[in-house]
Give the backbone structure.
Amino acid sequence: MHYTSESIETVVELFTSLPSIGRKTAQRLTFYLLRQPRETVDKFSSALQDLKNNVRFCSHCFNFTEQDPCVICTSQKRDKSTICVVEDPNDVLAIEKTGEYKGLYHVLHGALNPLDGIGPNDLKIKELIARLNTDVQEIILALNPNVEGEVTTQYLAKITSQLDIKTTRIARGIPIGSDLELADEATLSRALEGRIQL
Amino acid sequence: MRVTTIRIHSLRNHNDTETDFSPEMNIILGHNGAGKTTILEAISIASLSKSFLPTPDSLLINSAQSKYSVHAKAQTDLQVPYAVTVSFSAGGRKHISSSIGDSLSPKDIIGEMPVVVLSPDFKAITFGAPDDRRRFIDALLSQCSKRYVEEAIALKRIIKQRNDLLTSAKKTGFLDTAMLDLWTDSFIASAAEITARRFVFIEEFMPYFTESYSRVSNGKEMVSLQYQAKTLPKVTINSSTKKNELLHLFNDIAKKCRNEEIRRGTTLFGPQKDDLYIGIHNGEARDYASQGQHKSLLIALKYAEFQYLYAQKQEKPILLYDDIFSELDATRTRNVLQTVLETGAQVFITATEAHQGMKGLTESIDKKTLIVENGCIKND
């Protein structure tokens, strides 16, 4: 179905190109915007401009930031001896939410994935190695628990072992607050493998 | 496990079918193309998230519609209710929800409602290619262990990634050896895990199989099973081989294959090349079994599958027998039915007409006959 207005069609198409938005949702969003006062729509367009103009990578950790280096990298309260390596800026957000981690981050922007043509040079790995000076005492690898994340973890572990830096990975296991009997067997069997002595 | 009711929307020629079942014997009758097997496929979808036939999901959707859905209600042996809904839209993803939760992936429901399917399509297990036998092992192990499903998915993904690395090296002439080593290590770890699990499985499964074959053939013949890791040195491995040893063996073979793999641009070793040896008294079944022996072997494998799955899950699997009587003679039919009835499991049988062998056997049990015509059920 096509609309009589080319402008509407263009906006619908643009919304559809976003992740997890289908054509119906795109239409609903478009018509919602159309009915809003001009100021609201202006706010959207200038906010989108700002997003692209102001946000860039932190030259240390490669998280998104407006000031370089970012607030985490420059904070006096952060422990500079620990670096937590993640795939995605969203992962930083997730770990920050815990409020438990006080070290620094490093965002790789992906994982090794030959099928998508992503090799070590397409990730921020060189930049990570450049950060590993004498102050850094521990690297925590917190990549996604899938095949690609696993291989990337092994790759990084190999590099850091040559540099003689303590390297750890986050544990895999049962989510807190859920019942053991409800945990899926695959996760549970991994949790058993990774049991720790008390 | 027993399916109590099923609702089918737009699956093949079933537009909107809803029916309840007997907890024991269900006989589905109808002409060719009436939609008998589709009812079994619907149960298979509710259990395994896919049909037992190789038809892709997009072709299962009724041609006038854009989405099929199957909703099944069941009860465990301990009378705990279980419900599952699986739907698939053309060009989209599969949506699965069950008593466990919403937005599930296939691995979440596989094994929750165990089934054993016997269909003429599965004849390939005894005389087809190694691939057909590996699929038999994988399907059965997947219903037994979610960890196995996860490992098998990971193995497939790793092979894909590794092959991509090898093919692009072949094409461009440039190979990142560090990267290949990395994926090789990952592949070996996964390959050793899968291989070890399959070895143990075949050893556990073998007594079930010999027992059930001697039932089917009245104890006249001996049969055997052996898992064959085709790319590993033969003599050295069995189910007690430790995973460390397997890792060593795979590492050795990886070194030997390396140049050839780079030349051919593909992975040349691992469990995706393995086979299951099915032996009868005079040799490998694939080469030496008669037509009749092939049928007996398949029936025995499937009966052993039922017993093994039951022992592992402590839950009686549902038996789906698709059009088997067209393949079997009267004695075998009687034999099969007798064994099936003794298990006390819920059974679904499709046939074009009431079969001679059924008479007299099914009188003492609860049974329901469904007549299917043009994708609709006409109850007796």
The longest strand of chain A covers residues 82-86.
